[in-house]
Amino acid sequence: xxxxxxxxxxxxxxxxxxxxxxxxxxxxxxxxxxxxxxxxxxxxxxxxxxxxxxxxxxxxxxxxxxxxxxxxxxxxxxxxxxxxxxxxxxxxxxxxxxxxxxxxxxxxxxxxxxxxxxxxxxxxxxxxxxxxxxxxxxxxxxxxxxxxxxxxxxxxxxxxxx
Length: 162
Hints:
A five-stranded mixed β-sheet has the order 2-1-3-4-5. The chain is globular and about 45 Å long. The chain has 162 residues and is of the alpha/beta class.
């Protein structure tokens, strides 16, 4: 399977996870960690609300699960797929875990720390070289977030009127 096709397949998996998170009332972001031969090692979804944990972003949840499954925090050789560009906290965790490749769908114009607002992987403070690939299934990822926020705002507005 060619790289682009492989990235699209794994991003589809991350999108499915994001939809699950959205259906549970969480911001719809999904993440998948895959090894070098294309086997899924761990997944994560946003669960800040459910867990009452501000660090429970999809990327962090997936990194924690992968580290537990592998009994190793060092994830060199692994690829992380996530539907939204990681924030500074998640970018830091990705670098700390030594993940080799990050593939993400939509840019985050508010807190994106890979290329959009900040560029942590290429900054002088980064000790680890991260390959970052953006824009895989970008439109699907953006639409998922936009639709969720629109529905969430509509729900909040309706709740205030009752």
